[in-house]
Amino acid sequence: MAVTEVRLPPKDLRALQVERLVNSQVLHGAESLRRLLRYLADRTLLDPANPPKEYQIATDVFGRAAGFDPKQDSTVRVQTGRLRAKLAEYYVGEGASDPLFVEIPRGSYTVVFRDRATATAAPDEPASPSPAVQPALSVPPSRTKLPVRSSLAPWLTAAAFAALSLALAATLYLNRQPAQKPERRPRVVEIQSSPSLRAFWQPFLDSGDFPLVVYSNAEFTGHPLTGMRYLDPRRDANKQILDHYTGIGEVMALTELERLFLTFGSDLRVKRARLLSLDDVKGGDVIFVGSPSENLPLRDLPGTRFFVFRTVEEGERRGDLRILRLVQRESEQVLFAGSPSDPRMTEDYALVARIPASTAGRSVLILAGLTTQGTQAAVEFVCHPQSVETLMQQLRARTVQHSPHFEAVLRVRVGKGVPVASEIVALERY
Question: Do the beta carbons of residue 422 and residue 233 sit within 8 Å?
Fold first, then answer.
């Protein structure tokens, strides 16, 4: 007897694909993103002619009050952006063979379903690159906070090729096999024999799980060969977003952290900031590499008590970062600003802070410079025995209470584009 094949209506196939995504490992533990996906998908399937508004999503999904103002609260936009990143991550990994693509186009809250066998870009819009071929980590040709001018194009062309080489090395790093470990260097013995270094990192080694390292991942627009600049949401709404870049200092910092943890016989979990949800940081120790200007999840976490990052709003250095002291005392430096990056930076500042996490007994470690050079210096400072010994001595001298939490500001001397020396210029202990 012939067997009749039963095929579900297309709508049911789409609903099944949504449930597959909701129950995937990529969205495991990300309850807010799962609710958002279900809500947007249901609205698309039940009433495709009337996509939900930002206000409706805020009140229905995230429980915002009736007075919600989208101009003052970016929760919906931020969470939808994170959901887009999660969907891309899913289709690179466990969903690589799924029959349907699920997408949320930028500037929209409508879910789009595409058949894998026939999915093509619309004739009137450029095809989006497949997530599988995007570099996991690459370096922008310019880290300046000011817009890139066309006169810099020849320099950027040369820098792009150098960045491409470093990007390839970084991509290989992030996709390494667990068994591949970097060569042990002579200072391994020094690290292993440093009580202060082990005392500083012991809480992250004894937590029962590898710490999660989140590195900065800003949005750019433009093209590597003709010039790139930071994305300005107010004037770049319709421009292509490049969100797979980070700084040279962050690349060097990740390598330094991995080498240290391998020396201790441990390991790290690494994730770029734009793929992170707040659910990812619950229940474990987290290390943020990069400032809140590019490591955006830092803005959604309980902040530091004594020092904060502030952006210059006007003047020649508009857009640059500075560190501001919140608790001001007489004769103490209040504002920490590095030297201009043009023509060549000579001084930077960085924040090294260990603050309490939302889960009792866990910590958040912030290693963030005003620029990528300062970020590299902050990580190197806490990975080297001599500098950590200096930090621990100063912490022991401040016996207000026995607490592992502190905030320290480093002055960083920069030479030829790299950090060459760092010193503590401000320190507060909880």
Answer: no
